[in-house]
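ARCHIVE CARD
Drawer: 12
Card no.: 0347
Subject: one protein chain, sequence and derived structure
Cross-reference: see card 0346
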Amino acid sequence: MSSATLTRQNRASRVGGAVVLAAAAFLALVSARPHAGSWQDGSRLAIAEALVDQHTFAIDHSIFVQVPAYPDGRGPYPADEPALLKTGTCDKLFIRGHYYSDRPVPAALMAGLYQVWRYAGGTTARQRPDRFCRAMTLATAGLAYVIAVWCVYRLGTTLRLGWPVCQALTASFALATVALTYTRYVNTHMMLLGVGAALFLGVTPRADEASRHRAPRLRLAWLGTLAGLGYTLDLGAGPILLAGLLVLTAYRYRRVGPLALVVGGAVPWLVAHHLINYAIGGTFKPINSVPAYSAWPGCPFTAESLTGTWKHGVGHFCVYALALVLGKRGFIGHNLPLFLTLPGLALLLRRRPAELPEVLFAAGWCGGTWLLYAAMSNNYSGACCSVRWFVPLLAPGYYVLAVFLRDCPAYRRDFWVFSAWGAVLAGIMWWYGPWIRHAVPLFWPLQAAALVSWFVCRQRQRRLGQGQGGIMTPEAGLPAQAA
């Protein structure tokens, strides 16, 4: 390839990246709401406020717990949510006479951002809850969305998908999944999605690296840092992500040095989490899984509904596990392009691409997180759009899709069909927001329309292949006789 061609491709890649960043930032900006929308984000905002304005992890006196009256309607919760305005967040734990929120390390990061805001002359959360909520949403969920979208674009260029497919992959991730829906409010699930997308971009083999990848030491430490941060963001998906990265690193390098760099990057986050967690709750396990801490008067959570222990018979476990991905709250049904991940994974296992270890890492994170939450919960993650625990799994899902679309171009039209219908569904989900209390309108009809359209597309592809004297091969996207 000539130097002039490479220069044009690099210029196009930079321009495309700038457009992707600008578009994602605009979507995040218009999506962020000036209030908390549920117990979940109210609890996260409460601890950030308490750390900066009251210098404590206890959230007893936060405006998101004891809600003051705001006659101008710019309070910490929507004016049309009387229950939230009356009780404040119920996502809190009563420990030694005070209320606390879980996820202390992510809250400390949010508090650091809020402190910068205060140093810059910004108003307090109590003075202007609307500005505080919008700023925190943009700095967490909004920023994570921008990072994740940009990483998917860079993943496409790294895997050499070609400009049209790369743009289609990025647009599908940004506009045809629940990712945009979760930019509207503060939540750690979007933050973990940003971390996961950056991590999968980091582990993707580069063209200039040998089979025993000679990744720079800084990149290995950075991957460990990302996995360590992910561990603190979600104590279900996070530990599985870290364990998977360690296995992948051990397999790829087969030396102690690279593995030590990854561990070294992760350890500070693990130590910080468990020390703060122990200081608050006196335990090294997740403090929100201790039934005694949810025994305060009026608590809506019971020992039967808390996440963290086995709650099923064998039959009920199987039904619940399937419902998490394919039921009315099912994650795949709310992210229609993911219907291609299972056939894509099967074909990639047969083809054994150079990225097969990373593909298995992606599948392991998805499968492990799904089975863990299926075993340790029974509440479908509460009142939310789809299953909020699985939002970060969009990163490994789209990693598999990216490799699949590169190696099996005959399925690109299928991907576009699912993405087009997914964009319609995503628009409805964005309108209602992540804390929707009922099924997404038109959920089943849109799924049916997508599957029927996909079937028609497959049939046309098959007839086209037969008309050209062969059967379309998924490996090459060409008639079998021509291939």
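Annotation on reverse: The radius of gyration is 23 Å. The CA atoms of residues 92 and 147 lie 30 Å apart.
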